Amino acid sequence: MDQPIFRIPRLLRALALPLLAAVLPAPALCVPLGALAADVSSNSPPHIAAAADLQFALPEIVAAFVRSGGAPLKLSFGSSGNFARQIVQGAPFELFLAADERFVAQVIAAGRAEGVGAHYATGRLALFLPQGSPIRADRDLADFAAAVRDGRLQRLAMANPEHAPYGRAAREVLERRGLWLAVQDRLALGDNAAQAAQFAASGAAQAGLIPLSLARAPELAARGSFATLPENWHGPLRQTLVLVKGAGPVARAFAEFLRGPQARAILARNGFGLPAP
Amino acid sequence: MDWSALSLSLQLAVMTVLLLLPLAVLLARPLAWVSFPGKGLIDALVTLPLLLPPTVLGFYLLGVFAPQGVLGQTWLALTGRSLVFSFDGLLAASLLVNIPFAVQPVQRAFEAIPREAREAAWCCGLSPWRTLWRVELPLAWPGLASAMVLTFVHTLGEFGVVLMVGGNLDGATRTLSIAIYDRVQAFDDSGAARMSLLLVLIAFAAVGSLHFFTRKVGRRGN
User: Fold this and answer.
1) Helix, strand, coil: what percent of chain A each, to 5?
2) Are A219 and B182 an interchain contact pair (Cβ–Cβ within 8 Å)?
3) Is this complex's ipTM strictly greater than 0.95?
4) CA B89 – CA B66 distance, rounded (Å)
């Protein structure tokens, strides 16, 4: 009875070895990845959590940082509220770049931050209108307000005001202009400011209230027009950085660099306001 | 193409299949052949991850995986590593989410094995272990192949649970499906398109291979 009646198909047996070979490096890779979570000051590039309004400016700043002798960094973009929550729950970020100070305050209150936050730039809100939008770009929102009333505006893209600072700023602008209630059922809320910008640029919404730093980037400027909104129409969008407990030397050096002249020039070019040095 | 995301996704999928398949066989055999009190409950629990919204799973997993959570604390004490926002945690979540995809095809396959086939093997003097390897598993092969392919492809495509439990960490938890979401938000449509196409091709190849395996077995069975 040595001859088996049924056999495992030859193909599976042929595949077994290469499959094993493919997976063997996986546990080996898991170890450094796990070590990274436990000891964030290890040698691998530090993870940086960045507000979505930095989508275009930050890679430029990192490139300048690396050119001037800095080590590479790994960037994650998202809403400041989500990142604050993830960091409090133990996510292995070493530096948090929030789009306003209150989410930094949450991280500090949870005992996950090192020192206090530093205000390094100020964000501005813009009205973005995709190509073919029936609405005109003007900085006092006159035609936009008319479009809300006469129905030319069917969808307005903005970030979620619950956990994205630009969403909160957009809501403040709409409330100030007495339009918030009228647009309630026409909102397309992005998870973060970049997703809102993506909604607006795709033409799925007739208008978007998005960060100026995204609206004026070539990727978006080519797809529509924009108007910068007055700064005093919403609470300040103070871009605040904070080091997470256990941050390594690279993250520290980058936090310094972000407040230096090279980074400030890039931030200004991307539409951010700058605090006095 | 985000190569680190691709390699991470493949590792996650292969490890999920390798770890889950033996467990699925262990679980599916009694479920298929033995009747015991509470069997309906276990059947329901096995199916549950299929029906729950990924965000619900993600929410609960985040709670138990957190450093203050039951599992997170134990894992941290045992390995010194974190379960949330790490590859370990993704793998744990992936194992749980894929239980129905691994167990159900295997269970159906075991149910289809006639009792006489096993009895014949025992009468020929085969030990239970050899019966498993020489009779049961080869007969259940189409179910095992389905389980492997479904688990593999479903792991590559999992989005909600990964986003909630893993976050979006480059090289640690940014899988291919998260990378696509990330690329769309970065206005990198061509990057997103390349990765999406790759996932379509993988899914297509998986369905094709499944067809091929099971048809071959079916023909031999006749």
Assistant:
1) 45, 20, 35
2) no
3) no
4) 10
Q: What is the CATH number of domain B3-221?
A: 1.10.3720.10
* CA dist., res. A277 & res. B3, Å (int): 40
Query: What is the set of domains in chain A, with CATH numbers?
Result: 44-122+236-269 (3.40.190.10), 125-233 (3.40.190.10)
Q: Determine whether the interchain pair A1/B125 forms a contact, defined as Cβ–Cβ distance below 8 Å.
A: yes
Please tell me the pTM assigned to this model. 0.82
For the record, the structure tokens of A45 come out as 């590039």
Q: What is the pLDDT of residues B92-103, one digit of tens each?
A: 999 999 999 999
Among A273, A219, A233, A221, which residue's Cα sits nearest to residue A145?
A233
Domain boundaries, chain B: 3-221
Residues in A touching B126 (Cβ below 8 Å):
1
Q: CA of B38 to nearest chain A CA: how many angstroms apart?
A: 33
Alpha-helical (H) ranges within B3-114 are: 3-33, 39-51, 54-65, 70-79, 87-97, 99-111
**Which residue in B126, B153, B150 sits closest to B138, CA to CA?**
B126
pLDDT digits (tens, 9 = 90+) for A65-91: 999 999 999 999 999 999 999 999 889
Q: Using an 8 Å CB-CB cutoff, list chain A residues near B170.
A: 47, 74-76
DSSP letter, residue A70: P
